[in-house]
Amino acid sequence: MDNLIDGRxxxxxxxxxxxxxxxxxxxxxxxxxGLATILVGDDPASHVYVGNKxxxxxxxxxxxxxxxxxxxVSQEELHAKIDxxxxxxxxxxxxxxxxxxxxxxxxAALDRIVADKDxxxxxVQSQGRLATLRPGPRPATPxxxxxxxxxxxxxxRGANAVxxxxxxxxxxxxAHLLLEQNCTVTICHSRTRDLPSITRQADILVxxxxxxxxxxxxxxxxxxxxxxxxxxxxxxxxxxDVDFASVQPKARxxxxxxxxxxPMTIAMxxxxxxxxxxxxxxxxx
Length: 285
Ligand code: NAP
Known about the structure:
There is one protein chain. By secondary structure, the protein is of the alpha/beta class. About 40% of the residues lie in helices and about 15% in strands.
């Protein structure tokens, strides 16, 4: 299959570049770049995601700070911990692992993160910077999609891009990032009428729905670039939002699940952190 986008290979290149920047920072300024994660509760999937982030940090030569809080932590205690991490000089980027337990206010927790340590790019300030096309950390998963498109030389200027999904984590920032690169962008969601008639106009189709194998050949035009952000756990294993078997033969390029967008998220998180560390150093000098 020569139309596969190899996310593992692109992510490895991003991580190698991060490792080089981390080493340069240590040599130039004696600074060890540090990322902190705050995990609340015992969700097994979240534990795996956080563990993978720490492993990636270590491989890139970064320090990582692994903070666990009990599932019944109060909003005030969570905010106090976020404040403590934000004030820690050794930490250049931080994330609060989502989802939080239902009694906690996620938006309030995210907005407690100071802008220059927002490694996930999800605070309202970072999202506002993206929406107004000002510099700032970009949300890791959609930024990873942009990196894949760049790595495969996909023409963005003037391309028709259709994003399915309008979440704050993927769909909306994805649309802004594509717009920033001069795509003509359409956002679809659960109330969109006649979805296939819109998605068939896409040169670049990004699926971020969370519905297993929902998009089939009828949704895709010949030679479209299809990016599948979806991660759905079925008995047969992980599948995306795209029905890979029927879409892959039509697509010019397509991401597999797993091995497409997934590996990019951590790579871009690390990149945001080393950029934040360099920015802190520049502002201190
Ligand atoms: P989400 O918050 O549940 O958003 C899903 C979006 O899909 C919503 O905007 C929803 O529309 C829309 N939608 C639902 N059913 C639809 C339908 N039948 N037709 C058209 N649109 C429909 O999910 P998310 O957080 O954005 O995540 C999306 C997927 O990406 C999930 O599978 C998630 O696991 C995956 N993900 C992967 C990564 C990664 O690292 N690769 C990172 C984050 C998320 P409404 O707004 O109208 O409800």
